[in-house]
Structure formats: structure tokens, C-alpha cells
Description:
- The chain has 892 residues and is of the alpha+beta class.
- Helices cover 22% and strands 28% of the residues.
- The strands form nine sheets. Strands 19, 20, 24, 25, 26, 27, 30, 31, 32 and 33 form a ten-stranded mixed beta sheet that branches. Strands 9, 11, 14, 16, 17, 22 and 23 form a seven-stranded mixed beta sheet that branches.
- Strand 40 (841-849) and strand 41 (853-860) form a beta hairpin.
- Helix 8 crosses helix 9 (623-644), helix 9 (623-644) packs antiparallel against helix 10 and helix 11 packs antiparallel against helix 12.
- The radius of gyration is 28 Å and the shape is globular.
- The structure holds alpha-L-rhamnopyranose.
- Alpha-L-rhamnopyranose (RAM) binds at residues 495-496, 501, 505, 507-508, 611, 614, 792, 794.
Amino acid sequence: xxxxxxxxxxxxxxxxxxxxxxxxxxxxxxxxxxxxxxxxxxxxxxxxxxxxxxxxxxxxxxxxxxxxxxxxxxxxxxxxxxxxxxxxxxxxxxxxxxxxxxxxxxxxxxxxxxxxxxxxxxxxxxxxxxxxxxxxxxxxxxxxxxxxxxxxxxxxxxxxxxxxxxxxxxxxxxxxxxxxxxxxxxxxxxxxxxxxxxxxxxxxxxxxxxxxxxxxxxxxxxxxxxxxxxxxxxxxxxxxxxxxxxxxxxxxxxxxxxxxxxxxxxxxxxxxxxxxxxxxxxxxxxxxxxxxxxxxxxxxxxxxxxxxxxxxxxxxxxxxxxxxxxxxxxxxxxxxxxxxxxxxxxxxxxxxxxxxxxxxxxxxxxxxxxxxxxxxxxxxxxxxxxxxxxxxxxxxxxxxxxxxxxxxxxxxxxxxxxxxxxxxxxxxxxxxxxxxxxxxxxxxxxxxxxxxxxxxxxxxxxxxxxxxxxxxxxxxxxxxxxxxxxxxxxxxxxxxxxxxxxxxxxxxxxxxxxxxxxxxxxxxxxxxxxxxxxxxxxxxxxxxxxxxxxxxxxxxxxxxxxxxxxxxxxxxxxxxxxxxxxxxxxxxxxxxxxxxxxxxxxxxxxxxxxxxxxxxxxxxxxxxxxxxxxxxxxxxxxxxxxxxxxxxxxxxxxxxxxxxxxxxxxxxxxxxxxxxxxxxxxxxxxxxxxxxxxxxxxxxxxxxxxxxxxxxxxxxxxxxxxxxxxxxxxxxxxxxxxxxxxxxxxxxxxxxxxxxxxxxxxxxxxxxxxxxxxxxxxxxxxxxxxxxxxxxxxxxxxxxxxxxxxxxxxxxxxxxxxxxxxxxxxxxxxxxxxxxxxxxxxxxxxxxxxxxxxxxxxxxxxxxxxxxxxxxxxxxxxxxxxxxxxxxxxxx
Length: 892
Ligand code: RAM
């Protein structure tokens, strides 16, 4: 800890010692020990920890060793790469520059660092990654297998085919050194080997524009093989490839399923490396058989139907008699290229036990899981062969205690389980739901709490932030935000997990992306989605309203939605210092800017009536204002990004464009007194202030007007998706923290507190998605209960303000190398504690407002520096270390 003398009381004294810098948390392409990397020059990173702060606490140099075996690495032999001692303070984005890596190569690596005093650290603990199939397309064609099934519509008009089952047997004749399975599906698959699942993933290979690319997953299956006969099998269902996707039915689109193909198909290749150096390859094709099984229907939106009586015990194990199975067919549907998965698939995050079970009628029970989440359930029952249980899922209950399902629209979200004899456990694997309540119908006797367990599913994004403060309301808000992110960072960033939508809405993620980074490490998750966005870019340059974009129509593009194409890469660069994501997106972003420039009129954008400040309450900004403000913002971000990837000409050009747009904007919208007469509303001031559109001398007048409007509105918002977080940021940027805190703590409509007082355990789509007083119809009865999600992260974008201003943890320039600490203490809340595990290490900020003094505590990670700016104090620089400060409170 460091001594810090300001106008304050000294809280603790420490001696500065040796830095003792060490490197840990070694990752490759943002993932810990990833299997099947497709990038030939993967990027490596580590995290530094130090015993003490001080001048020695910087990394002066590093050395990386990459070896082809653990033994070589232990001998300090970097037979693949020895970087040598590199004088650099970089701890991430280090591009592998050793010998060319080949398919399936296992890379063992470690790193050593030198501190500011030139002291070397010991070698880090070893880490590893493995390469995927790099040249397989040249070596052998990719063979997909399928089973043709044509299913007639059911009585509700739904087409819900059964899952396909595939299997093969093979012999392992010698001791195995290593076996790796590479698998994919057009559809979703679960791979099984000798009776066990390979890995523990759900919905692999995930959702992409399958016409352009399909990912394969890599599993080390060495431990699943056995000497002698082995069996591999897979269950394959429609998933996003052939199943229902989005709101096709609602919109009466030409189709609502089969967007990418009709028959789901499987690809699997198991590569066995024997101890004697020989190899064997087991690949889908001739020799594989197919059948149907207990999964009678499997659809992401509609649910799963499972008949346990149709189980074929041992179908995925050796010794099974598959003579009744048919030969699998080769799939000939031309689709996109097979590529290594870029991120970890959806997995189980936790299990939850119901908080109550209530009987609703004969054989009908409603389980309350206690909170809203996305996932599935584990059902445990006994006896009763042939009895069918029905499970319906809902986020809310109606006033009479029945399950509320109106807001699921056309998502049937219902599972059926037909029992066999004896004890049985079942959990659907080919569907998921967004829910809090489960209605279980068909039980013979009363269930117990153990009858149903909730299984929370999500894309694994390691936790990054912690937050806690003196207001229970705000703590609840933070929990609701994290829960809602968990439910919607689900293969892609979805708008909601429950109804017939679940689309990667671009407006929602551009508003929320920065918040998401504070909550979790979303680097690999969002990098993957940026490729989906790139694949979905319209031929004429616009980014669509959601990605992936399976439809031919509608909602091709919209201002503030399409801009995600620029804002999300910029956010990844700022937060993770990632220039590769920027470079990857760069050609598309340029085409997007061309599209905007072509449509501009006098350097401003015309009104494109689409979503505007979506779900705003009261007066909000006009369509042309929003479109032009985002245009200016995009140009400014492009100028920065072009500079970061060495495109100097572009950088100058975009900076000039941004300046021209700003001038035109001021001329058109901002009066000489700083007011915005034609758009005199919260969102307009907030966007103009946050996007730097104000001439600086007028900005304060604009911010004061914004604050005054909020006060005049009873300390409440009149904003939607776009305005809300920007209002908070603009207020704090221009000295109105008290007004921002008022909004944060507001319990009247509209505000987060209002939904919390009405029972929210997640972020809702609308400020009044449900109220005890008015039910689901909204306060004025005008809400459409069908478009009413109780898990929608867009309004959770206040997390960004909670971290950047309330706790005051921000970055100056990319990657948190230079940290900004600018907490904004507030007596109403009393105290706040938070931390953020940035790419440059863990940052801590705490404050407590006492009767006479305000105390602060900070941790600045090694190898970084921070500008500390505290209210009423001159700002100063802090080096790595732990600090405490205490100041006398100013007289009010
Ligand atoms: C809704 C989505 C999303 C929003 C669009 C405009 O249907 O849920 O949140 O971005 O509309």
C-alpha cells in the first residue's frame, strides 16, 4: 500500500519493497487453454501481479517460450518459439511469431517478465492451447451426413421434426497417445463417445450465417476412448439452421423456419494418435448409420418432446445392435466454409432450486425458480410408463396465479416428457427457455422441490466486475443487470431469451456493449458476433437491425442500430486494446461509412423513420436528429480506429468528415444559447453532449438545460433505449452528479427503481412492463402485453455509468494502461465498493461518505498508471499500488 498525503488524514503507511512481478492467467485468443484454435498467428496474453506497488512495478521486458511438448517446456526449450527477451510493456495481443503451426498441434507455453528494476520473474505456470484443423479442406472434402425426414404440420400448424441420431463403431487397436474430435452440424448437435458426452456444451456449433461459415468444435477425447471396440454417436436437431427463428410467424414472413437448409447434418472427425506414432481417422461418411430416437421434437423456440419409452439404451456405446438403423445419407447442400469455433459454446452456469411449488389444479403445479433466467430444467420422477408430463415456461404469473405466456407470442416454449418405468431423470438438451416459473402438468402425486431443478445456461464469459453499495435498490439493479446479461449473452447477444425473437438486435448491443464489458469478459464473445455482423452487412453497405440476419426482409437497417458496426469494434478496441477486431471489421466499416455519406444531405442524415429512441416515455429526439448525431459519432470513432490500425489517410479524412458533420449539426440544431429548440428533450441534449457535438463553450448551457428538464419532470427520465445511459453520462460529465443519482434512485415511473418495487429480478424491456397497479398493459393501458419481455438488457446500459462515474473506473485510451479514477461519492448512497478485472489487471475503487469526512480506497494494477480526480481536488497521477485517502467534507 502507498502513503498518500493530500489534504487528508493518513490512514496507513507502508514501505515500498521489491516489486516481485509475476505473470499468471495465461490466455490464447482471450481463452484459457482453448482447444482447436484456427488462427495461424494466435495472440497471447497474461496478467501481472506484484507484491508491492512502486516504480519497479512495471514490466520492462518479457520472454515467451512455446514448446511442442510439456517436457521440452519444462527444460526451457521453446522448440516452436522462443521470443527472446523483448523489451516491451505489452501484456496482451502478443502475436505468436514462431515456427508455422500445423493442424492439431499442441502448444505448451510459459512467460517470464522483467520488472522496472530489471529483476526477472520466475517462469509462469505452464499453459497450453491446441490448433484446429488448418488444411483439412485441401486434404479431404468435408463429409456431412444427414437423414431425410419430412414432417407434416401438427394441429397448431407447426412443423416440428424429430432429432436425428447418428452412430458408428470403430476399433482402437493400440495404446492411444491422444485423440481429438472435431465436430459440427448444420443444426445443433451433441457428440457422444462410448456412452458419454464429449465436452459439456449446448447448441454447438452455434449460430452463424451458415451460408458463409459454419464453426466446428474441438474436443480432447483421449480419456473417452477404450481399447477394442468404440462407438461414436450424435444427436442432431434443427437449431437455428432449420428450426423456427425469430418472429417469422408474427411478421407473416414467407417462411419462419428452414432459413438455411432443410435437413440438419453432422460432421465429425476423430483423429487418434497412437503411442507408436501411427494415426487413425474416423470420419462421418460411409459406415455411419442413422435412426430416430426419443427426442420426437426439438426446436429452440417451440420446445422439446421426449418419449423415454423410445430410448435405445447403449446406442452411443460399443456392442449395440444397430441392424435396425439405416445407412446415413451424404448431405449435399452447399453451405459455408467450415472454420474453427472462435469462442466457447453455451454451457451450464449454475443450478437453482425452486423457492416454492404451488398446486394450480388437479395434477397441475407451478414451480417458482425465484428469479428470471435462460436455460432449462432437470426433471426427476418415478414410475408411470406412458404418462406424459407437460412443462410450460413463463416469466410472470397472471393476477389469478396462472402462468403468463402471452408475451411469448408464437414461441410455444413447452416441453413434453413421456415416462418410462422406474426412477428417471430428464433434461431437454435441444431447446431453451427464458423463464422464472414452470407449470408442470400430469404428475400423479405431489412433487417435491427436488422434482424440478433450474439449469442456468449462458455463453461462458468470465466475470469481470463486482459492485456493491449502501443502497439495496441499486444493489438489486446491479444484480438484475448481471442476470439479464447472463440470459442474453447466449451464443449471440440476443434482445430477449423467451419470445419468438431472440435476435442479435444491433441497437441493443451498441447501447449496452460497454456495460457488458464491466460485468464480464466479453472479448471473445463479441469478437465472434462481429463476424456475424460483418456477414450480415447489406450489399449496399448498411449494417442490419440484427445479426445474424436470416430474413430477406424486413428491417434492413435503422439509425442507431446499424451504427453497432462501428461502435462495437471501437468498444472492443477501447476496452481490450484489440486492434485485430478493428482490422477485421475495417473494410465493412468503410463501406458502411460510404453508405452513410451517399445518403447524407448537407452533411447530415435525413430522417429514416424506424425505431427512434425506442420505447421512450414522453417527448424524445426526432429521427433526423438521432441519425445525424450517430453519423457524427461514427465518423469520429472511424478517425480514431483508422489511426489505430495505421490508416493515416483515412484517419484524416474521417476526422475532417466528423468536423463537417459537427458544424452542420450545430448550424441545424444548436442555438447560440446552447439550447436545442426544435428537439428540446432529454435524449437530444444527452446525445449531443456525449457525442461531442456541442461547441465546448455552449456545452455547459446544454447540460444545465438537461438537468433542469429532468428536475422539472420530477427527477425522472423521458428517454428510451438511446437516451437513457447518455443522460446519465452527460449529467456526470458536466457536474450534475446529484441529478444523475436522483435518476438512479428514482422509484417512480419511469425508472429502474419503479420496476424493482414492482418485483423485477431482471431488466425489463419497458419501464412499466408490469406494475402491481396496472398489470401487463402498462400505466396508460397502451402497452402491448405481447411485446413485453422481462429479460431485455438495453435499459441495463446504466451499468456503464455505475462503473465509469459512480465508482469512477475508466480507461484513457485503449486497454486500461492509463486508468482514470474519478469516483463520484453521494451521501444518499453512503458508500460504494467495486472492482474491475481489466485486460491490464484488477482495478479497485471504494468510497464512503461519513459525517465529517469522505474516505477512498483504490488499487492500481502493476504496469499501469492512473489519473485520480476526486471532487474538489486537483487531479494527480498514481502508480501501481493500493491507496487510501480521507478528506474533510465540504460544507454544504
Ligand atoms: C424489439 C427488440 C429490440 C429492439 C427492437 C427495435 O422487438 O426486442 O429490443 O431493438 O424491437
